[in-house]
Specification:
It contains 10 helices and no strands. By secondary structure, the chain is mostly helical. The chain starts with a helix and ends in a 13-residue tail after the last helix.
């Protein structure tokens, strides 16, 4: 029952974060596991987060990956991005740039601007895919237009200085993307985009 699993996930988060109820991590974990066991991707990703950070549970990277994979298989773009970042960095898994690109592309194709940024980096650097500045620029533009602060800043710099993946200097486009980045409400959390 999807509705029951979603309600269990929501109640688990309420217990975890003490929102309207006393904090009860044991009950939060019980409810989150029930929801995850019923296939709720938010619950699966949340369990992955808890195991990845060791918050409330024993830290276990293999268990985190297991839950992220289950959520990612249901098109959870955040879980897909997290898997891409882990394979890119080798954190909790063997480093594999090709596998990283696979997960970034899955999330990017579903509209995740942060994954689009990471995919642009892969094309620009040639890690996990053949180096291709045209594709790198296409994904960087898509990420910037999708609201990724880091992509907006990167694209502004690329146009300002005429560096890869931009093919030439373009002050007007540099100004456009600088303006977008300056107005972006995500700039206060931008460092999270580039963490792996």
């Amino acid at each position: 029952n999807r509705g029951l699993a979603a309600a269990q996930c929501g109640l688990a988060l309420a217990y975890w974060e003490a929102q309207g109820v006393d904090r009860n991590m044991a009950e939060a974990q019980r409810l989150m596991r029930l929801a995850a066991g019923q296939g709720n991707p938010d619950a699966q990703r949340t369990l992955g987060d808890w195991y990845a950070t060791g918050e409330g549970v024993a830290q276990d990277q293999a268990e985190a990956i297991k839950w992220y994979l289950l959520a990612a298989a249901q098109d959870d773009v955040i879980a897909q991005r997290y898997l891409g970042q882990r394979y890119e960095s080798g954190f909790g898994v063997n480093q594999d740039h090709y596998e990283a690109v696979k997960w970034f592309r899955s999330a990017a194709d579903l509209g995740d601007a942060v994954s689009q940024y990471f995919l642009s980096v892969a094309y620009t650097s040639g890690k996990g895919v053949p180096q291709n500045y045209v594709e790198g620029l296409r994904w960087l533009r898509q990420a910037a237009n999708g609201g990724s602060f880091v992509a907006q800043v990167s694209l502004a710099g690329a146009y300002l200085y005429g560096r890869a993946p931009a093919e030439h200097q373009d002050m007007e486009l540099a100004y456009v993307y600088t303006s977008l980045a300056t107005a972006n409400p995500e700039k206060s959390t931008a460092g999270r985009e580039s963490e792996g």
